[in-house]
Amino acid sequence: MAILAIDWGTRHVGLAVSYVGVYAKALTTLSNNRALFDNLKALAKEHEVSEVVVGLPKNHDGTEAIIAKQVRRFASQLREKLDLPVVFEDEHLTSKEAARLLAHEVAPSDPAIDAASAKLILEQYLSNKKK
After folding, report:
1. Would you list the DSSP string of 43-67?
2. What is the pLDDT of residue 62?
3. 129, 36, 42: which is closest to 74 by C-alpha?
């Protein structure tokens, strides 16, 4: 069984996966459109996902960012449509870190950054789970 991580954004949704709960792999980036839940459902089935981790945006002081309300709404719909457990992981600065790591490979607006961010969210989740 796999764990799927999601970096939700208003335009793109980055995805990463962990098959053995030890390492994370950037998977793909999807457009945030009407087909999103169908695409996520197909990917969850294809990768035999048993749990979903959604990045929750927080401010520097640890409070939830304004967009967190939209992310929580998305996660609620995701839980219902995929019938899988959905947990949150702080995604504070993961997009900036992903952009920094990929700076020599992609443009700052490249959707690949969203998948790399999802990978960082998943790595953090797996690390916290071990503790």
Report:
1. HHHHTTEEEEEEEE-B-TTSSBPTT
2. 84
3. 36
- Nearest one of 27, 6, 31, 1 to 86, comparing CA atoms: 6
What distance in Å separates the CA atoms of residue 78 and residue 62, rounded to the nearest whole number? 24
pLDDT in tens, the chain (131 residues): 899 999 999 999 999 999 987 789 989 999 999 999 999 999 999 999 999 999 998 888 888 889 999 999 999 999 999 999 999 998 765 555 645 554 555 555 556 778 888 888 998 899 888 76
Answer yes or no: are the C-beta atoms of 53 and 5 closer than 8 Å: yes
Q: Is 15 helix (H, G, I), strand (E, B) or coil?
A: strand
Phi, psi of 29 (to 5 degrees): -125, 130
86, 93 Cβ separation under 8 angstroms:
no
Q: Which of 86, 59, 90 is nearest to 73 (CA)?
A: 86
Residue 17's SS3 state is strand
Task: Identify the structural domains of the chain with CATH numbers, from first to last.
Answer: 2-130 (3.30.420.140)
